[in-house]
Amino acid sequence: MSTTLSPTPASQTPAPAAQRAAGARRKRRSMVTAVLFALPALVLLGALVGYPILYSVVRSTFDAQGSHFVGLSNYAELFQDHNTLIALRNTATWVLVVPALLTGIGLVLAVLTEKIRWATAFKLIIFMPMAVSFLAAGITFRLVYDEDPNQGILNAATVGVHDAFTGTPAYPGARPRDGKTLSTGKNGDYTAVHRAEPGSPVTLGLVGITPAKLPTDAEQAVAAPTTRTPDAVSGVVYLDFALGGGGKPDQVDKGEKGLPGVTVQLTREGRTVATATTGPDGTFRFPDKGSGPFGVTVPAKNFAQPYAGVSWLGEALITPAIMAAYLWVWAGFSMVLIGAGLAALPRETLEAARMDGANEWQVFRKITVPLLAPVLSVVFVTLIINVMKVFDLVYIIAPGPVQQDANVLALQMWLVSFGGGNNQGLGSAIGVVLLLLVIPAMAINIRRFRRSR
């Protein structure tokens, strides 16, 4: 007895070709859907990024007016222009210094936040500058670096520390009236023209001091010390000027105040043999110094201009000053990213190292840092990209006379194109070079992100 199998209807078993066609239709529908969703973003990206890049590349091959094709002449000029070479040098300095410093600072801060009690408040304080615009940060640091100690907080602190150890000049700007009684030495000291003898008072009048700025204990000057000793050299240092006028030069008159607190030196054959300080009436006295003649000198430290601090915005320090402002702004970014990586580290590995006898420094150097290497490299490369584009802080903090000394590529591109140069061909060439410098760092970051997926 044989059994005959009836054929399966074609409608129940679709052909392989039909299956492939259905799969292809589904794939096309998915592709079309993805393109439709991505199209607005692609159009926006093309308009805001793609088109400007292409236009800059084309524009860089034309002259300043954009009317004549000049090929690569702008690129040749770029590497011959003095200001652009300074910008290239400064940009290279930023790339070599700032990302490494920021990564190290962020690592230290991230580790510290795990050791302190108020970690959240600490993170908030460090990260807060990231919420401040570069414009506001630049204005803030322009005031911080102000050379006037009455306005710049950094110079106020510098002057305060300096004066605490060295003191301040008693009468800055004081000078002899006409050089008849005092002569000026090579180092700014004032020396009595006539040699001094014991028992003969020396009268040293000075001008250039506002009476209102005299010490409150200043008294009426006297022509000679009240105690006359034949073997003592004595004298008076006074302000040779009285309110209301009158009186004679180089002579103590009524209303003329003595200058208290002035250091006076007695010299013989070029060597200082004694030092005295004037009293409230300006008098001084050197007792029992033997026979003369002597020289009487008022050191320049009494009249030197007060210490004004450091020229933070000068030619020598302008770039480090701007870098410090950048570190202040971006330290929070580095700390937060590295802190996130630190939180993801396997704690059992760290605890095992401590149980094996490793101290905290060994754990940090041999375990924490190697495990954080991928995060550190991402932070480092990201900061390189950001540093190459720095513009705002340099433009705002650097005063006009030293702006070229602090110049970077992004600022030079703006100056050449819009800041007075009006050469958009050369500016476009600088922009293209800046893009080419940024692309390798971007490629490294993209490849690392793909590996971590």
Radius of gyration: 38 Å
- The poorly predicted ranges are none
Q: Assign the structural class, choosing from mainly alpha, mainly beta, alpha/beta, alpha+beta, or little secondary structure.
A: alpha+beta
CATH superfamily of the largest domain: MetI-like
What name does CATH use for the topology of the largest domain? Answer: MetI-like fold
Our measurement of the CA-to-CA distance between the termini, rounded to an integer number of angstroms, reads: 64 Å
Q: What does the average pLDDT come to? A: 85
Widest β-sheet, arrangement of strands: 2-3-9-6-7
Q: Proportion of β residues?
A: 5-15%
Q: What summary fits the major beta sheet? A: 5 strands, antiparallel
Fraction of helical residues:
40-55%
The ordered string of helix (H) and strand (E) elements is HHHHHHEEEEEEEEEHHHHHHH
- At the first level of CATH, the class of the largest domain is Mainly Alpha
The tally of helices reads 13
Q: Tell how many strands the DSSP assignment holds.
A: 9
Integer tally of domains: 2
Describe the structure using short key phrases.
13 helices, 453 residues, 5-stranded antiparallel beta sheet, alpha+beta, elongated, 4-stranded mixed beta sheet, MetI-like fold
Secondary structure layout plus pairing:
Blueprint: H1 16-59, H2 73-78, H3 82-113, H4 119-127, H5 134-144, H6 153-166, E1 175-176, E2 182-184, E3 190-192, E4 202-207, E5 233-239, E6 263-268, E7 271-277, E8 283-286, E9 295-298, H7 318-343, H8 347-355, H9 360-371, H10 373-388, H11 392-397, H12 409-417, H13 424-452
Parallel strand pairs: 4-5
Antiparallel strand pairs: 1-4, 2-3, 3-9, 5-8, 6-7, 6-9
